[in-house]
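SAMPLE LOG
Freezer: B-3
Tube label: C17
Construct: single chain, 68 aa
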Amino acid sequence: MSDSAISAFKTRLMQMTGLDEAQARSFVEEVYASGATEASTKCASELDECLHERAHLMRALAEARAHT
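STRUCTURE (predicted):
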């Protein structure tokens, strides 16, 4: 996997999970080094679910703020 692909995935992971750079890079390298295609697919799915849930929470927060 190219450094640019690792960097892009690492950045997305950091933004969505709050991991620091070292943790995100370690995770990304571990996943790709092991050749765990299934794991990366599952992780992407779970990350998408987290993003979806985060969007709901952010809307609820905005609505709550609007009513206070």
